[in-house]
Input
Amino acid sequence: MKSFDEYVVVVTGAGQGIGYGLCLAFAKAGAKVALNDLDGDLAIAAAHKINEQVCAEAVTPYGFDTAEVAAVRTMIDAVSHKHGRLDVAIANAGLSHFGRFLDYTPEAFDRVTAVNLRGTFFTAQAAARAMIKTGTKSGRLIFMSSVTGNQAYPNLNAYGMTKAGIQQLARVLAVELGAHGITVNAIAPGATVTERTMADDPSYDTNWQGVAPNQRVAQVEDIVETALFLATPQARHITGQTIMVDGGWTLISPIPEATPDIPDTSSKLR
Ligand SMILES: NC(=O)c1ccc[n+]([C@@H]2O[C@H](COP(=O)([O-])OP(=O)(O)OC[C@H]3O[C@@H](n4cnc5c(N)ncnc54)[C@H](O)[C@@H]3O)[C@@H](O)[C@H]2O)c1
Output
């Protein structure tokens, strides 16, 4: 098990799902964690649950909307001031909103971009400022993208656009922040079993396991382990990258169902 003793970590959108899994894993590995969620009660309950498991006051809840830049800054200033460092910031909060392009409203567009792009951008900015100000030598910024930032997925037009934007933000910030020892990477999960995806579709795991070559859906731990590795000192030379955690889903281009069996070409070149 990795040790993050003394580390100070911020995770947004963490009352449940992937974010919760990240907070639990970092707290178990010895970190002090700031757990944000839009739903303040959920944030408090999640922090309480983790603290009980690790038998320590490792996690502090912060209830606010990450689209509110002032609130993001207040949390990150408070955390870095209290501990005198900030090691890892994970901009995980993201809003999936399905809608046909032809019917998509400006209100839905503004909300999706405010949470996914503005939220990620200003979480990164506040965290990078705090890392530099406190003299943290090897800061880590980790963003939560999606396979939909690489492949076109119908009715996730605005969402996919923001997830592609997040990957580009990781590249640009890797260049801007490299001299400060900060690495910036994104993780692009494929279909992942969480409370939300199972609530949307109770058969989500069985329905989606067939889309990836490895015939499985991701569990939260698959995403968490990737983030934990990116946070380690051993990952210091990896920056500006997006790591697909999708069982190979994005490697595939569909072929026609009527494709005949592959002809035997072993005896002739053609
Ligand atoms: N689950 C998947 O299959 C999947 C696949 C690809 C990418 N992702 C991405 O991973 C991240 C986490 O996904 P998930 O499925 O665990 O999340 P989720 O939808 O279950 O949400 C997790 C938490 O984030 C909170 N949240 C939402 N908007 C927020 C905001 N503006 N400010 C603060 N908190 C907010 C919610 O209240 C919720 O408790 C998201 O960015 C998502 O786009 C998820």
Summary: The mean pLDDT is 95. The chain is about 40% helix and 15% strand.
